[in-house]
Structures are given as C-alpha cells and as structure tokens.
Amino acid sequence: MPTNGLHQVLKIQFGLVNDTDRYLTAESFGFKVNASAPSLKRKQMWVLEPDPGEGTAVLFRSSHLGRYLSAEGDGRVACEAERPGRDCRFLVLPQPDGRWVLQSEPHGRFFGGTEDQLSCFATAITAAELWTVHLAIHPQAHLLSVSRRRYAHLCPREDEMAADSDTPWGVDALVTLIFQNRQYCLKSCDSRYLRSDGRLVWEPEARACYTLEFKAGKLAFKDCDGRYLAPVGPAGTLRAGRNTRPGKDELFDLEESHPQVVLVAANHRYVSVRQGVNVSANQDEELDHETFLMQIDQETKKCTFYSSTGGYWTLVTHGGIQATATQVSENTMFEMEWRGRRVALKASNGRYVCMKKNGQLAAISDFVAGEDEEFTLKLINRPILVLRGLDGFVCHRRGSNQLDTNRSVYDVFHLSFSDGAYQIRGRGGGFWHTGSHGSVCSDGERAEDFLFEFRERGRLAIRARSGKYLRGGASGLLRADADAPAGVALWEY
C-alpha cells in the first residue's frame, strides 16, 4: 500500500501535571517555567526526544517555544536552550502509581515544586517531585503493534481486541484513549474498555486502566500489576503478558485516524468498487468495497478518496472515475461543495461528478443540475466522537446542560446518522439541541439534526438547523452563531 500520508505516526505531545493538579508551563518572557496553569493549552505542551548520545537520558522540548528544559547544578531551571546541552538531559523514573519523576542526569537531583517555585535540587522524592503524563494529542487514533506491524481492532465474534489487521480499515480499527484518574483506558468502537486479561468490559474498572510509558518514541501500556499490554498468540489478542519491562512486543505507535466514508447516489445505492476499477453506484449494502478513506489537502482543501482495493479515485479519459491511482496527483483531487444534507464533487477538469444511467460515476456535468450530481456522504468510523477546538476539548459543564469548549479533559459523545445529518448524544442519553440566542444544550429528549462539513484535514464544521455554525469563544461555551466555517468554528474530530 502506498503511504502518501495514509499512515502517519502521531507526534506525541503531552502535559506534565504536578501533585497540586497544575501543568508545567514554558513562558515566553524570560524563558521561565512554572506550574501554575489549571488546564492544558499550547504553553503546557511538551515533546519527549531521545538524547542524541548513547544512554537512557531524554530531552523535554517545549512545543510552544521549540526550546529545551534545562537544570543547572544549583537547581535553577529554565526553557531557554535552542540546542540541547548537557544540562538538558533528564532521566524518567516511572513510579508504581504511574507518575513520573524527572532526575537531572548530570547532577542527580530531582525536579519539582509548585507555582513559580520550581527547581531541580531535591535529593529525595516527595509528592512535589511527582508528575502525571497527560497526552495532548486528539485521543481517537489507530493502534499499531511495533513488533507485528499489525493494527489493533475490535473482533466482535471473539469478543476481544486483536492486533492482526494489515490495514486500519473500517470502524473496528478506531481506538479512543480515555484519561481517567491519572491513567488511561483503551475504549473500543462499541464503547467497551479493554481489560488487562483481554476481556472487554463496560466500565473503566481498575484492571482496565493503564499507565503510559514512552520508549524510543513508542508507547507502552502498564497494568495495575506492572505487566504490559502486548499482542499474544497467533491471533494477536491484546492482553497483558508476562513481561514487567517493555520490549518490542509491548510497544505501540498511535497513527492518525483519517475519516472513512460511504457515499450514496441519487439511485439510493452505495458508491462502490466491488465490480472492478470503475467507481459506480450499484450496491445495496456498505462493506469494505463501499468504504473510502477521505483525506483533505491542507493547502487546496481538496480531497482524495482511497479504496480498500488500494487505489485512489482518479479522473480518466472522457471524464470517467476509476480507483486505480497509486499516487496522489491533480487528477485524484476533488473539490467538495456542501449543499445542505448533500455534497457535490468537482473533478480536476472543472466538471462535477455525476451518476450516469448505468450507475457509473463520471465528471461530465458543467453544473449541479439536480440529484444526479449530489451525494449523501456518511462518516462511518466515528460512532463515538471527541471534539477539540482552538481553546480545548468539548465537555459537559458541571451542574449545567451546556457544553464547555476550553477543557483539557473531554467527554465522549455518541453519533447517529439519518439522511445526510447527524444526531449527537451525550452523557445520560440526552441529545444536543440549539436553544435561544444560539445556545447549545445537551439534554434534549428528541434528536436535532446537525450537518457535518469536512473543511480541513482532521477538522470539520458543524452546522445547526438555523444555518449557523457551532463555535467556541471567549465565554468558553459552545454556541451556534458563527456565520462562516473557519477559525473557532472548526473542530478536530
């Protein structure tokens, strides 16, 4: 399978939370560091890098400044170094409860403190030197076993998760990381949690919670008994093995989960490549041949459709559309026009894709004349949804039916689909609905339709029945009053 950006390992960014629930922050002014922030924003994001030399030391680089954390011999700490020097080298010492201790490698002292009183001069480990790792990436991804080079996915018949798939195709390959009580749970696409014995359970019990560890840029998941998740046996069943130290078998990559979609044409049949290379609307059910991985180019905002047979949709002679391209090119790019509950696609020849009488798709229409140029597009690999805006994640506001948009923790929402629109259900089964003056509430008894418009790579706009777009903003509340799908009205999903 060609890569073309299809399989991109996520750069692991994270926050470090001290014992008083404040985040390690790198300030631009004076390149000082403190632990004063109550939530995870840009200044609180860090990247772990291996030390260029040999050994087990690591480097902490501020995502915000691009500079490295350092500790001098007298305990003074800063985030000023543009290039990592000797004082930038730290040892990460995982503790039994999952928290980290950071020890200066050259000086042997421990890093900790509160507020703006941080130092790396402690000779013993106390509560002030303990840090919790909080991932800053979007928590919905694909999980790739490093040793087997296979993707984890839900196996409904066996009632387990297994790392035995060549490609992360379909909804079963979606994994959601849930941050809870300083640890992480792995949630399958059907909202169950992976327990360390391999069973799937409905509640995040103790044996379904894991401590994250990093090794050479990879992730390991340690259970409450100090053992690590790994693919076990010929089927690659995910469960904790015998090892108490992470080797190659216990390491995983997180990969970006691109949207996978199905399209329905005016004849109410699914667009498919089941009967050959021609892309045609001729199937009555949605399976792998009717599922397409959709990527949006960040510069042009045009999209590509990649099929399960290993080819991109491409424009061929006489306006035909075939799933035969192995590389992204101008002819594989399509411009999307959002038309309410439907979408129209314009090919590189400037013409719209339409359905011919035999069901085949072709870019031969000069304008959208009617239903033949319109398609229903359905996102299939987000049955559960986590939304993140410019200021943070969407989460229920405590003691209210409204939704916050600036949180460092997130809620998981459930999606359903009907006739080109989505219904969003939250905690307690209440539906999202719009109220007076653009407010968005989460306690509706009846479902309200929202339209999803995939506008940028990894980001969508959500349109309410009023025609306005959902946005975050200074108030920190989710509102449906944006006129354009841009900026605070775009959501990472």
Automatic annotation (TrEMBL):
Keyword set, alphabetical order: Actin-binding, Cell projection, Cytoplasm, Cytoskeleton
Localization of this protein: Cell projection, Stereocilium; Cytoplasm, Cytoskeleton
One GO molecular-function entry: actin filament binding
Highest taxon of source: Eukaryota
A single BP term in Gene Ontology: anatomical structure morphogenesis
Keyword flag Cytoplasm: yes
Organism: Ovis ammon polii
Pfam short name (any one): Fascin
UniProt family annotation: Belongs to the fascin family.
GO cellular component, one term: actin cytoskeleton
Protein name: Fascin
Main location: other
Fascin-like domain segment(s): 21-133, 142-254, 266-377, 391-493
